[in-house]
């Protein structure tokens, strides 16, 4: 009997489905990053307007935030694999539309205003689709691996996301310089097709929430109420939202690259990738040597250091100083991202994972895309460098405020 107990196997990790998920996630995010980088470069080239870059982020965040709560309700009641597959296909169609708008045919036959409006319309659609794809990907992980493997799976998922964030902009920059924006969109379409195939090969995942008779608004309120009552989670999400909102300098990379550092698209792509490289390295390090104590304090320290890096980037006139400032901002962002992601996955019940992930996506989308809008507007009003210095200082002020007002986050350990 003793031998039998000792030999009893642990819960097996579902290697093949999770591997397919990682390949799909990496391919999808890589395509998303290529599209985001390429359309930003293209839009700035045809308009020469910093504000147009801010409006690009705004056009994506409006549908993403508006649909987030409803998306969470749908995700918890749906087979996540089938739902993700559907909205990835929709996203593919929107990218094909963006590829057409970036083609020579469109540039020769449509006015700049028409092209701008078309780009904003397509980006609006991608924001609507990402309201479903992002939270679905986050909530799928817990159904693909046993709970004892969840922390490791989150680290691998975060690393795949960051790897794609590094490779995507670099590929986009190289292809734009050599072949143009249209070919870059063609590569992105190929990556999206690979992501769709990998998700198709994953078995169906049954809904975790059995309350099918629950009304939509009651379901949505249940998710909001959970986040509101879980003060540590709420504080972590709020910290991320305001820090990235004010510290989102990467939206202005086309401006810094062209007007201040005098770089081509490849050089700008390496700056874009610098944050991701830093995040990847620190994520792999933490996977081998995870934080065992004082995770809350480390989260706050890392966000404050992120703000300092953004200020250094703003005042830099050197490519390498700018690169390393963004690199270390990625290191500190990777630390905070992993801690937030672990809190989100480990402390949320399975039947609410979709709704809570969607509430989290509202914070993330509002910080990233609204942060892009804030960067564009402040750069227009204050000029480029002072606007980014202002954002870095505000990030540090946000950390100080959260340190004093949210002791539960400061004392958090898991």
Question: How do you describe this structure in short?
Answer:
With 414 residues, the chain is an all-alpha fold. It has 17 helices and no strands.
Secondary-structure element order, N to C: HHHHHHHHHHHHHHHHH
CATH class: Mainly Alpha
CATH superfamily: MFS general substrate transporter like domains
Helix content: over 70%
CATH architecture: Up-down Bundle
Give the N-to-C terminal Cα separation: 35 Å
Largest sheet: none
Portion in strands: under 5%
List unreliable stretches of 5+ residues: 1-13
CATH topology: Growth Hormone, Chain: A
**Overall pLDDT level:** 79
**Radius of gyration of CA atoms, rounded to a whole number:** 21 Å
**Total domain count:** 1
Oligomeric state of this protein:
single chain
* SS-based class: mainly alpha
Describe the global form.
globular
**Count of individual beta strands:** 0
DSSP summary: helix tally? 17
């Amino acid at each position: 009997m003793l031998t039998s107990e000792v030999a009893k196997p642990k819960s097996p990790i579902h290697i093949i489905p999770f591997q397919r998920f990682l390949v799909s996630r990496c391919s999808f995010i890589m395509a998303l990053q290529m599209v985001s980088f390429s359309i930003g470069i293209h839009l700035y080239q045809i308009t020469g307007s910093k504000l147009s870059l801010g409006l690009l982020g705004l056009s994506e965040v409006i549908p993403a935030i508006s649909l987030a709560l409803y998306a969470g309700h749908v995700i918890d009641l749906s087979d996540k694999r089938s739902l993700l597959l559907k909205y990835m296909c929709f996203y593919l169609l929107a990218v094909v539309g963006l590829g057409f708008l970036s083609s020579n045919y469109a540039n020769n036959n449509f006015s700049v205003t028409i092209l701008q409006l078309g780009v904003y319309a397509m980006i609006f659609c991608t924001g609507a689709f990402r309201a479903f794809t992002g939270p679905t990907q986050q909530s799928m992980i817990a159904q693909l691996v046993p709970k004892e493997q969840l922390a490791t799976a989150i680290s691998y998922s975060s690393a795949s996301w960051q790897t794609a964030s590094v490779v995507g902009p670099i590929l986009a920059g190289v292809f734009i310089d050599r072949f143009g924006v249209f070919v870059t969109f063609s590569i992105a379409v190929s990556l999206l097709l690979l992501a769709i195939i990998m998700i198709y090969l994953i078995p169906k995942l049954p809904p975790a929430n059995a309350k099918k008779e629950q009304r939509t608004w009651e379901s949505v309120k249940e998710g909001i109420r959970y986040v509101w009552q879980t003060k540590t989670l709420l504080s972590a999400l709020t910290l991320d939202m305001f820090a990235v909102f004010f510290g989102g300098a990467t939206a202005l990379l086309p401006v810094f690259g062209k007007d201040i550092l005098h770089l081509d698209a490849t050089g700008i792509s390496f700056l874009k990738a610098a944050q991701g490289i830093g995040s990847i390295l620190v994520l792999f390090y933490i996977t081998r040597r995870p934080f065992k104590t004082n995770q809350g304090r480390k989260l706050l320290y890392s966000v404050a250091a992120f703000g300092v890096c953004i200020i250094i980037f703003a005042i830099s006139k050197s490519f390498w100083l700018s690169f390393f400032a963004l690199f270390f901002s990625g290191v500190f962002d990777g630390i905070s991202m992993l801690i937030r992601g672990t809190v989100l996955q480990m402390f949320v019940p399975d039947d609410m994972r979709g709704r809570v992930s969607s509430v989290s996506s509202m914070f993330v989308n509002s910080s990233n895309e609204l942060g892009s809008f804030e960067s564009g507007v402040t750069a227009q009003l204050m000029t480029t460098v002072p606007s980014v210095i202002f954002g870095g200082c505000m990030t540090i002020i946000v950390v100080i405020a959260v340190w004093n007002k949210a002791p539960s986050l400061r004392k958090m350990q898991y």
